[in-house]
């Protein structure tokens, strides 16, 4: 079974990580011009959010 972890980077995007490999970086700030993916705009808008980590298991 794959180990799936969703991370929220401090002041940055969500990372979808499968078996230790980052698969996607998804926009968390709402300002990406390439949604649903992060394009770095969170830095320009000085997005603030706490880090978190969630492991999904079945
Ligand atoms: S989190 Fe990076 S552009 Fe939104």
TrEMBL record:
Gene Ontology molecular function, alphabetical: 2 iron, 2 sulfur cluster binding; metal ion binding
Record carries keyword Metal-binding: yes
Keywords: 2Fe-2S, Iron, Iron-sulfur, Metal-binding
Coiled-coil portions: none
Domain Iron-binding zinc finger CDGSH type: 11-48
InterPro entries hit by this protein: CISD, FeS-contain_CDGSH-typ, MitoNEET_CISD
A Pfam family annotated for this UniProt entry: zf-CDGSH
Gene3D superfamilies in the cross-refs: CDGSH iron-sulfur domain, mitoNEET-type
GO CC annotation: cytoplasm
Name used for this protein in its record: Iron-binding zinc finger protein
Organism: Nanobdella aerobiophila
